[in-house]
Amino acid sequence: MKPTLLVLAAGMGSRYGSLKQMDGIGPNKEAIIDYSIYDAIRAGFGKVVFVIRHSFGAEFQEVFNAERFGGKIAVEYVFQELDALPEGYKVPEGREKPWGTNHALMMGAPVIHEPFAVINADDFYGQDAIAQMGRYLAALPEGSKGEYAMVGYEVSKTLSENGTVSRGVCTVSGDGYLQSIVERTKIERQNGQIVYIEEDGTHPLAENTPVSMNLFGFTPDYFTYSADFFRPFLDQAIASGNLKAEFFIPLLVNKLVSEKTAKLKVLHTSSPWFGVTYKEDRPATVQKVLDLIAAGVYPQSLWGK
């Protein structure tokens, strides 16, 4: 069975200032999503599932549909909303945003029944990274559970010159399996050194520290673990009055790995990573895409139109 690509595209681009998922950065107005889908098709993925919001759903579906991709991959849409909660729960007064990346991932459960990869819509992962994940997922024996994967990037190659970034900082065993992953929401370079910022101050990170860019590979059992853990997550967030609590993918991955419920292989890639966290990142992203086209990695017109 061909793996599925789950694209997290529900973010409203608060820092970027617009719906960055739909921003055309290629020569023919291709978005970063287009390059990820193009790479997924040639890596053997059979379906793409977009996680979006109802507020821009019609506009999004009009642009990103099976016809756009030449019918080469099946397309489905699911929706992440603030009130998508388990029975018996309601949105706490004052909560304004959905519950984070793992909450978004959970929306794919009704339509995904095969191994799947997860990516952010606004990150450029590269051909090799998506190909590696495709090979890993396709090679899993039917019915596999708890055999997950992640593509790791060096933190020094994932920064923005225009502000802090969020990354899952990883510790990896000698045989290439994840030991722990912690979401750090404010990483930047200060005075030549990479640091992450917490309430208690700044903490250094080595240049080659492996980080997650939310390119994960899972089997469908991950949806069950997500649903089971979401309730205690909500209980704690509500009890503490934390109106900004985020149900991040690394939060659950770390729990499953530490409890030895699952293991996660860290795949290394030669692909360049880049993205548009901030509007000021856009010119450099456009140029990097042009450089890859000039190198023959992508055609001038991605979809031949």
Automatic annotation (TrEMBL):
Nucleotidyl transferase domain span: 20-227
Signal peptide segment: none
Pfam short name (any one): NTP_transferase
Protein name (database record): Nucleotidyltransferase
Source organism (scientific name): Candidatus Rikenella faecigallinarum
